């Protein structure tokens, strides 16, 4: 049986689990791959750091370049743009195949690295980069390649789902839950990437690129994170029978392809509302297949390692069987939908003076901007003097531009004391 040399770059949350599985399950993996997968070394920053005692100490090295130069397969789990990008380029340039979970790098340079792989008869696989353990990239790229995908919508960041879910179910504080998500190995090295939606935006760009056969630039993804979501927003959502989730949405419409990431209100009966903890779920709509849903663990060392090992076995099989790589399909150029044209529905919370004519003047601004109100709930607080009322308004779908103009004009009304929250709504 052939032996393939596997270099592992990084021994953090995911890398350590990949090393464990490569060592523990060596014989099973060899059977499935048709070749022995020999872990030749693990690139780390400091070989003296205390780590899992099951991994032989002699595997650790700080010479990542030498490791890459001797490998048939390189598994990159360092994270960040550099030196990950340079090392992946180095491996592909010499014909070694690469598996990575680095969505930040792929969203920035995925098309370029895929072309480099193809030019050097090497493979580049990255199932772990989107929605952790969930097989989603292969279904989109392979299983649905005979169909036309119209929309991809999902929860693709485990850390933020873990935080929002804990705030919803236990009333926990944002910062405490973030620390727990970090301790459990869900968060990025810099958790700002999770909390501000950048990680989900990178995943959304990758999903859109594969789903719509194009190279969708990260800079064209509209991105809003969850850092401004308060316990009050979560409680108000609960009162209204809704839940707040960070959604990534990529859709093809008449005005082109729009990709956005933002906190979203969902009815509690919506399937995505039932996605708890660090789990992820992705809905795909295709012209002929209809609706599909993929669900599973979106973060964490072992689940993510599962996706990495799946790619490693697939890569090894092809190295063993040989033959030309399938040609890269021509990338279609796309019109990027202006975010102002995206159709959404808003839930708006307002604190207003409880006086005659307030509702009428608010309703008139909605009408002037062509935004239709679907539901309105008013709670009056008579204990305060003068009395104030809290309004919760849900709109029908309209363009972002009309909705934001409406909120801006309403905020200017003298009777409007505060715009408490503005959240987009899906599934209503
Ligand atoms: N943790 C998760 O749930 C998931 C992570 N990923 C991705 O997988 C990759 C790794 O993630 P984690 O293991 O969570 O990160 P981590 O921060 O736990 O591990 C990265 C390791 O690489 C090491 N490292 C960084 N630069 C290095 C260098 N120049 N030389 C040697 N070692 C270096 C760090 O010291 C650290 O030990 C990232 O790209 C991440 O976005 C993807 C899906 C899920
Ligand atoms: N930090 C990411 C890890 C997986 O991609 C997340 O929380 O989803
Ligand atoms: Na995945």
Q: How does this structure look, described?
A:
Belongs to the homoserine dehydrogenase family. Catalyzes the conversion of L-aspartate-beta-semialdehyde (L-Asa) to L-homoserine (L-Hse), the third step in the biosynthesis of threonine and methionine from aspartate. This is Homoserine dehydrogenase. The protein is 36% helix and 28% strand. The chain is of the alpha/beta class and 428 residues long. Strands 7, 8, 9, 10, 11, 12, 13, 14, 15, 16 and 17 form an eleven-stranded mixed β-sheet that branches. Strands 3-2-1-4-5-6 form a six-stranded parallel β-sheet, with helices on both faces. The radius of gyration is 24 Å and the shape is elongated. The model has no long low-confidence stretch (mean pLDDT 95). The structure holds 1,4-dihydronicotinamide adenine dinucleotide, the ligand N[C@@H](CC=O)C(=O)O and sodium ion. Sodium ion is lined by residues 127-128, 130-132, 134, 136, 307. 1,4-dihydronicotinamide adenine dinucleotide binds next to helix 1.
